[in-house]
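=== RUN LOG ===
request id: a7f3
mode: sequence -> structure
chains: 1
length: 594
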Amino acid sequence: MATQLGSIKRVRKFPGFVVDGFNYQTPDVCAYFLTHYHADHTCGLHAGFKGPAKIYCTEITAALITNVMGVKPQFVVPVPMHTEIVINTAGRETAFVTFLDANHCPGSATIYFRKPSGDGVKGGGDDKQSVFAEGETNSQSQVTALHTGDFRAARCVREDKHLHELIKKNGPVGELYLDTTYCDPRWRFPDQREVLATIGTIAKNELKREPNTLFLVGSYSIGKERAVRAVATAVRSAVNNANSKVLVSWQRARTLKLTGWWDDDVFVTEGDEFETTRDGEKEPRNEPADASASADADADADASASASASVSASSGKHPEPPFRVRVSAMGGGGAHKDMLELLQTLKDPKTKRPYFAAVVSFRPTGWCYSKRLERHASLGAGVENTVENEADLFDLKGTRAAERYAPWVENDGTTRVYQVPYSEHSSFPELVSFVERIKPSKITPTVNAGSETQKRKILKHFAHLTCSVTDTGRLEHYFGQGGTGCSGGGGKRKAQQSLDDAKGDAIRVKTEKGFEQIEEEKGNLQIDETTYPGVCPETIDALRGILTPSEFKEQLQLLKEAEVRKTIQETKEEQDPAQTPFPLGCVVVVKGGG
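=== RESULT ===
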């Protein structure tokens, strides 16, 4: 679930820009951005929303929040994918915003922000002139940020040509707001395509075991559509019957239609999204308190849909069902109890015989991944040269992996639950690959990042991948060679460079005096440079507007501790020169600065 903190919802260096944070409705907000239509990203958004600013989102998400949630269209600005739009910040700066595919759920997007930094001008006052020729792009003159919302950083996202064109034109991403849902090395679930192949294979195997099987696929109000289609495709290919369709609620049917996923040949609705009033007029149905609906309501809907089922009561066979796959709610308890109830209530209204002899439920979520599934990697070993393309490779690996999944079985084998690691969030290896590919200057985690300890735990995984030298919010920037290069990739430090060689841009602490006088006022750290001879004023000016007050305090505290240790070490060196350490000027400890 996305962390609900203002420091994460507001886009730093773009005053008044708020992403997925509708609980923040202060007068300075000039634009809301919605990455996708999931509940943890629409907190604070409701039918009565009136601003203080408009909402920018993709066309699909705009259709969902206006038609399903009831937000007034005049407060929503649909933005086509890959189209750059112009929006002014609260500081009246011109910013450019582009929505890119997030590979999460229908309509989901990552959002790319940029604005001129003012570095591409020279002179002062009204005499400012561009130092670049017309049409020339200076990446150093752009302030950029990328907010991933929720995303699955598969190859199609990592290699998105639109994203890389923006990076090539405007320089490295300044700050990456990263979906860190699965940011832990233990989350190494397979590629989506592999898991989809596994799901399809399991479905076919279950039909061989029991031909009269009903399949349930867990889903949210939006999302998991690919998993549903994988089961539907497998069942249709195995049964080859026109009634091998997917039953969805009218609410789910509405979202499928709004997102462009609806297919008359695949889906069938269990009810009408409109109901008749006493006056004979049609009006939208009120959503039931229980989105999963009751078994009795399901039975009624199934009975009305089964008029075409023609099976003799004396045939001894199960009647032909009007559907074979059903979308169900994710999570919840009593899975086997509910499944058994479905077996008992889903009957042909004429013969009173049950449609199904077994129920198989798929719960597609990355959280079910375990180390035993790491054997998937060995299943695909040696097959790379036996297939023609990557899609066939994932299909083969997924098919072979199906045998590794054991269902949770109850009710004498008539109800079976499979947990499969199908996720629409990035796995840990995908997160690392994405960061390595775009090399941002700074990373801000957006999930499981409610405290500084949580943030540090996440950021340690990417410290060697970010372009820290280009991030003025980190001390490495002030110790780089010419301000170029990335940590882990270039810009090697001179081994004997000292603090005095940092050309006046490094923080230098000569005494411990004055640190306790630091105070916070109106969100900024106020320092009287004249009383702090050990702190370089130019560096203070550079960092004050970039680090948060708590981060700034933390940096100064670390420097104070380093200076104390240096003093102790110098005393030891005077007594024993053999104890001379690696030069302190070459070592910088960064904590909490990104």
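=== NOTES ===
DSSP finds 15 helices and 23 strands in the chain.
The two ends are 21 Å apart (CA to CA).
=== END ===
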